[in-house]
Write a structure and sequence with these properties.
CATH architecture of one domain: 3-Layer(aba) Sandwich
Radius of gyration: 23 Å
Helix content: 25-40%
Strand content: 15-25%
CATH class of one domain: Alpha Beta
Bound molecules: adenosine-5'-triphosphate, magnesium ion
Largest sheet: 6 strands, mixed
Structural class: alpha/beta
Distance between the termini: 44 Å
Number of strands: 10
Shape: globular
Strand order of the largest sheet: 6-7-8-3-9-10
Order of helices and strands: HEEEHEEHEHHHEHEHEEHHHH
Amino acid sequence: MLAKPGHPGSLVALTISFRIRTLFQATNCVVSSEILIEIKDVNFAYGRRPILTGINMIIPRGKVVALMGISGSGKTTLLRLIGGVMKPTSGEIWVDGECTSALDQEGIYRLRRRMGMLFQFGALFTDLSVFDNVAFQMREHVDLPESMIRDLVMMKLHAVGLRGAHKLMPAELSGGMARRVALARAIALDPMIMMYDEPFTGLDPISLGVIANLVRQLNDTLGTTSLVVTHDVQEALDVVDYVYYLSDGKMMAHGTPDEIRANKDPLVHQFVYGEAEGPVEYQYPSGEYAAELKLGKRREASPPGGRHAA
Ligand SMILES: Nc1ncnc2c1ncn2[C@@H]1O[C@H](COP(=O)(O)OP(=O)(O)OP(=O)(O)O)[C@@H](O)[C@H]1O
Ligand SMILES: [Mg+2]
């Protein structure tokens, strides 16, 4: 399904809502109270530069939703808005029944403590062991006896297949193992939502597959909800329930993985199949190239019949 630019935002929101409802009714979920995050007509600008325009999105509880789009399309910005790091210029973001714009700083912190975040390269504390990395948040935020923390840490490490590595230091881990420890740390406090920003970056194909499957497994076994920002289209399409496609700050398409694979829009098609040729340009918007190289001036300055720069 394609949200055409120019549609009134509310109509797009209604369409998305209807599509999600249909999808999850089909899988026997009761939907109306089952929406964890709802983004309504959100606009966001850095200063005077618009970054996100008319964004509507629904993330149902218990589902794994992917947010895709080329570099610079606004994905991380959207995650930051959901996390309350920044507020939308207009529109609303509802998280578990609370409108983030209406919350004060304490309310935002309270909400954020219920979110797990795994950032690109998911950096670990290098001077803490694997065990202490995972225990860190539990010790910071929850008043639990050390014996209980130990059991919880071991459960989280077991969930990512690394219980046996609890004594290792980060420098002793491979990239894929480090990402799994970061994952265990992100789920330490049983978040209501896990937000992943490029969780697969820099991994070899096998580790990538392992992490992709873990995202799905952890979501289902912990009963959480996941939002995965990724460029790794094929792996993501294999494990997620629903996909949103951002382009240049606008929600251009959304649908089930099969619908996205079959999407005929040239932008979506080029992205999904990683084609070099298509409407997506790799140049950051810039002035006229010849003018910036001052070729015109050089030409003027060149003697008649002289050589010009190409
Ligand atoms: N702090 C900032 N101040 C000003 N502009 C910013 C800031 N952070 C990001 N931007 C701009 O906002 C746009 C969207 O950035 P964002 O990081 O959300 O993109 P993205 O889709 O996550 O890209 P990538 O896939 O490369 O991570 C970019 O054009 C970027 O230059
Ligand atoms: Mg990003």
